[in-house]
Amino acid sequence: MRQTEMRQTEMRQAEVRQAEVRQAEVRQAEVRQAEVRQGDMADGLKETAATPRHFVWHGEMGDEMCAAFAEDGYLIIEDFFAADQCDALKAHAIGLMDNHQADEDLVVFSAAGQAHAKADYFRTSGDKIRFFLEEGAVDEAGQLRVPMREAVNKIGHNLHDLDSEFSAFSRAPQMRKVAEKLFTAPQLLQSMYICKNAHIGGEVNCHQDSTFLYTKPESCIGFWVAIEDATPENGCLYAETGGHHGPLRALFQGGQENGFQDKGGELAMRTLDTTPFGEADAALIARKGTLVLLHGRVPHLSSANMSDKSRHAYALHVIDGSAHYPAENWLQRGADHPLRGFETEGLTGG
């Protein structure tokens, strides 16, 4: 009996080792593929690269900045936040990750495959703070391969209202100044802390933000802040210069009349226009503290991070309160979490 149990234990251990070897081989293949794609992207940019205009924040968004944003569909404003402000937000985010209990709801976020869209944990996150993991962070047994702070792809999607540190960062006076220049009635819709960790940070395929955060008329603008330096090596953003003048290609919405957020509801990508995206010709290289504005229609992407350096960023998406926000949109908030603007009164985030 004892020998039988020992043989069974050895067989189980051998199966685990074989699974780990297969998983390592898959991960190595993914790394090689990502490196090839990153090299191809860099080679392509050498031939067609645009030179993004960089501005420095001096207290207001001037006419030249507004004109550049209208023309290019993106805007790079350096020295928008101080380095110590970025460091403090990063430390706070890491603290949230370290304190997060990963006993359940280990949902992997993949911008390429959208498999996360089937998980209620994702679909009901519009008015909550939730943690989404990288594809390579979870093993076949559903356990973390690395510490939580290294496993997280992003935290979302209501940091700006439910967490006091993120609320203060989101509603900083300079953020409000820019928003008031671009919107009639700005409302903070979605926030994400994006880790893009070293060696494991996933690729984000080419997309338009209005696909996911659609309004009538379209009004979504992304406020993307470099919490760490963002370079081609660690997966900076790339955008199609002037691409926002093209059509909106798709909508990511639910199709059930009774609300797709109910358990079992479906989210799906609906094609609006089959026009291919143009070349993402601009590397939006951003030093720590830089704000990158992204028009809701501008096609943009980022490669996987195979470098030794992480690329933390904070993304806030703002819409105009005068526009209609459809009930079919994937991101919805409960009646107890109404959209707010940049005012700081009455916020109770903890």
Explain what this protein looks like in three dimensions.
With 350 residues, this protein is an alpha+beta fold. The chain has one domain: q2cbj1_9rhob like domain (Jelly Rolls, Sandwich). It is 29% helix and 20% strand. It contains 8 helices and 14 strands. The strands form 3 sheets. The protein has an 8-stranded mixed β-sheet with strand order 1-2-12-7-14-5-4-3. The chain has a 4-stranded antiparallel β-sheet with strand order 6-13-8-11, with no helix packed on it. A two-stranded antiparallel ribbon has the order 9-10. Helix 2 links the parallel strand 1 and strand 2. It is globular, with a radius of gyration of 21 Å. About 5% of the residues have low confidence.
- Low-confidence blocks of residues: 112-118, 256-264
Largest sheet, spatial ordering of strands: 1-2-12-7-14-5-4-3
Helix tally equals 8
Q: Secondary-structure element sequence?
A: HEHEHHEHEHHHEEEEEEEEEE
Q: Write the CATH fold name.
A: Jelly Rolls
Helix/strand-derived category reads alpha+beta
The percentage helix is: 25-40%
- Report the CATH architecture: Sandwich
Q: What is the domain total for the residues?
A: 1
**What is the CATH domain class?**
Mainly Beta
The portion of residues forming beta strands comes to: 15-25%
CATH superfamily: q2cbj1_9rhob like domain
Record field, number of beta strands: 14
Cα-based radius of gyration, to the nearest Å: 21 Å
Q: Output mean pLDDT.
A: 86
Shape: globular
State the end-to-end distance.
57 Å
Kindly report the oligomeric state of this protein: single chain
Biggest beta sheet attributes? 8 strands, mixed
